[in-house]
């Protein structure tokens, strides 16, 4: 009973950590989206500003500087996207590992986690190139379907696992209530026996051995057999 309660506590702890990671992912995606929009606007504003001044340019050097500025701005934006993708890949990889650890945590049941489509959750996914590899290191156009399928499968398994834990917790609570009731009844029985013994002792003092009523002997005999 204590081991089961400890397992439920540990699983709830992992569940809270998973929710925090999910919130962190959503926050990172929103921040990156804002940064991307802001960077794009900055490039457009810069090009429009320089474009308005092209009428005052007199040489080819100004045109070269203008094109170089466009290329530099594009390269900066490209590096930002590369870093953003690397951060998102690392975060997705971390979340995948945390979900896998959560699903592999013991619950007292030998049944494997099953996804909503009825298939058992597998280990690391197969890459299109054959063999097992880190799917998050592949180009997105090659890994998109695998990533979506893996995350959807694990989310379905997490939901099924949470339902299983809730049912186990309810069962543990019912068992605990029954145990407490049994202990309460046992304590009441001990108290009742103590009162009966005390009453029998008092009654025995008021009756001598010679004039003790027959019913008292019968009563004492019945009580001694309890």
Low-pLDDT runs: 108-133
Helix content: over 70%
* Helix and strand pattern: HHHH
Number of helices in the DSSP assignment: 4
The amount of beta strand, in percent, is under 5%
Total count of domains: 1
State the secondary-structure class: mainly alpha
Q: How is the main sheet built? A: none
Coiled coil: 71-98
Keywords: Coiled coil
Region (Disordered): 105-131
List keywords for this structure.
single chain; 226 residues; mainly alpha; 0% strand; coiled coil
Overview of the molecule:
Keywords: Coiled coil. Residues 71-98 form a coiled coil. Residues 105-131 are annotated as: Disordered. This protein is mostly helical and 226 residues long. Helix content is 77%, strand content 0%. Helix 2 packs parallel to helix 3 (140-206). It is rod-shaped, with a radius of gyration of 37 Å. It starts with a helix and ends with a helix.
Secondary-structure topology with pairs:
Elements: H1 2-52, H2 60-104, H3 140-206, H4 214-224
In brief:
The chain contains four helices and no strands. The protein is mainly α. Helix 1 packs antiparallel against helix 2, helix 1 packs antiparallel against helix 3 and helix 2 packs parallel to helix 3.
């Amino acid at each position: 009973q204590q081991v089961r309660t400890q397992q439920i506590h540990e699983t709830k702890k992992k569940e809270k950590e998973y929710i925090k990671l999910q919130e962190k992912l959503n926050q990172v995606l929103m921040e990156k989206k804002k940064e991307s929009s802001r960077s794009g606007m900055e490039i457009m504003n810069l090009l429009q500003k320089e474009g308005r001044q092209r009428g005052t340019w007199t040489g080819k050097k100004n045109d070269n500087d203008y094109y170089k500025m466009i290329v530099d701005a594009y390269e900066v934006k490209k590096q930002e996207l590369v870093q953003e993708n690397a951060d998102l890949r690392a975060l997705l990889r971390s979340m995948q590992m945390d979900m896998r650890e959560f699903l592999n945590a013991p619950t007292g049941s030998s049944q494997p986690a099953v996804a909503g489509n009825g298939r058992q959750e597998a280990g690391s996914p197969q890459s299109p190139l054959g063999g097992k590899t880190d799917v998050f290191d592949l180009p997105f156009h090659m890994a998109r379907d695998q990533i979506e399928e893996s995350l959807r499968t694990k989310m379905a398994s997490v939901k099924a696992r949470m339902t299983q834990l809730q049912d186990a917790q309810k069962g543990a609570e019912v068992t605990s209530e029954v145990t407490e009731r049994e202990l309460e009844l046992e304590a009441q029985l001990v108290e009742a026996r103590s009162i009966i013994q005390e009453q029998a002792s008092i009654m025995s003092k008021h009756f001598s051995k010679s004039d003790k009523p027959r019913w008292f002997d019968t009563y004492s005999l019945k009580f001694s057999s309890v």
